[in-house]
Design the sequence.
């Protein structure tokens, strides 16, 4: 388990803060999540409600909804993903810059929900990695907020370079293979 | 109103026959007379709106497919349903009405997509709901609700994700309301919970 705290010791001269890179980077990341609303069905209405003043997602530092994948780092898949749309969801996910996270909002995005049918992708985790699932049909805005807080906790716990490592894994493997030969 | 509407039509067009209907007046029309009949409906009888185009699959019966058209007169405020049997049971086709009613365009594409009826003379008869390469027509009787396994529409995404279009796990479904009683007690539910994805559906008659 990593140290997730940012320690401040006033006895150290010059107001220096001693901490770990992971703790700082994750602290920054988790308090400025920029979600991308992938609104595909009725869950998107609840997602909009979560952004409105009554539920006010900005209390948690993630009110900057971006409709461009280039400017977002958390895709909220809100709604039924059809097989025809699956390609689009996957491509938009790939266009998002690392690090990135995915929230599957509602029964349809999580499992296909009540759409046990020829046209519906049976869970968005078949095409993109999902970090948090939200149950409900549709989930209330509070449920989404709770999921986003859980996502913040998850971001706070992870290795800040994990995505770089995953991206470079192939390259490192190839490099070590070349070294070995 | 409705009675005289039907009588007038039957008198004027000898090829029409009356069709049993629970709501709007309905007639059967032979496929050869369809375009001529619809042109008269539009130009002389005031049916200026084509509200819906759909079809029926009668499964084992022949003729297997019946095209259905709903017309509305915006001056008389009356509907008319016209049913047309397709001659071919294997490759059903009907004449397109796009040159008469612009609204037929997407309706005919949808019926082609889901029922596989070819509309001859349609300017752009492509699938409208399913993707272009989809091999089946899902509303036909022989097509299972859960679907049939085929590749994902985009080959490169399919390769990266290893995902496929699968037959959806029905898990005792389809989850439909029984329709009896108040809605609070007839929520959609599985009818048969004796099997799951992991436990196979028992053969009929083996349940004690």
Sequence:
């Amino acid at each position: 388990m990593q140290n997730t705290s940012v320690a401040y010791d006033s006895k150290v001269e010059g107001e220096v803060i001693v901490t770990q890179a992971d703790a700082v980077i994750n602290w920054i990341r988790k308090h400025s999540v920029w979600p991308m609303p992938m609104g595909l069905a009725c869950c998107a209405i609840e997602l909009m409600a979560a952004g409105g003043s009554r539920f006010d997602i900005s209390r948690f530092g993630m009110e900057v909804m971006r409709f461009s994948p280039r400017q977002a780092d958390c895709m909220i898949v809100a709604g039924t993903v059809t097989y025809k749309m699956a390609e689009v969801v996957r491509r938009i996910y790939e266009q998002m810059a690392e690090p990135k996270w995915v929230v599957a909002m509602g029964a349809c995005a999580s499992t296909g929900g009540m759409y046990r049918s020829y046209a519906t992708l049976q869970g968005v985790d078949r095409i993109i990695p999902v970090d948090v699932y939200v149950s409900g049909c549709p989930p209330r805005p509070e449920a989404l907020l709770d999921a986003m807080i859980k996502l913040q906790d998850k971001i706070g716990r992870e290795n800040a370079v994990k995505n770089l490592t995953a991206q470079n894994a192939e390259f490192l493997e190839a490099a070590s293979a070349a070294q070995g030969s | 109103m409705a009675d005289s509407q039907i009588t007038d039509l039957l008198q004027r067009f000898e090829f029409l026959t009356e069709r049993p209907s629970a709501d709007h007046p309905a007639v059967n029309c032979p496929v050869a007379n369809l375009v001529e009949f619809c042109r008269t409906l539009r130009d002389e009888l005031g049916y200026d709106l084509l509200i819906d185009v759909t079809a029926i699959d009668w499964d084992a019966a022949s003729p297997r497919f019946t095209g259905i058209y709903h017309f509305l007169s915006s001056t008389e405020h009356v509907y008319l349903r016209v049913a047309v049997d397709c001659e071919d049971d294997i490759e059903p086709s009907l004449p397109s009405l796009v040159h008469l009613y612009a609204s037929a365009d997407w309706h005919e594409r949808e019926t082609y997509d889901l029922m596989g009826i070819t509309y001859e003379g349609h300017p752009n008869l492509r699938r409208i709901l399913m993707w272009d390469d989809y091999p089946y027509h899902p509303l036909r009787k022989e097509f299972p609700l859960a679907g049939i396994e085929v590749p994902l529409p985009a080959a490169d995404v399919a390769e990266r994700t290893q995902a496929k279009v699968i037959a959806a796990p029905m898990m005792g479904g389809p989850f439909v309301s029984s329709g009896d009683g108040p809605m609070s007690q007839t929520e959609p539910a599985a009818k048969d919970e004796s099997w799951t994805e992991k436990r196979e559906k028992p053969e009929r008659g083996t349940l004690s």
In short: Chain A touches chain B at residues 83-84, 86-87, 90-91, 112, 114-122, 126-128 (CB under 8 Å). The radius of gyration of chain A is 19 Å. The longest helix of chain A spans residues 162-180. Residues 22 and 159 of chain A are 6 Å apart (CA to CA).
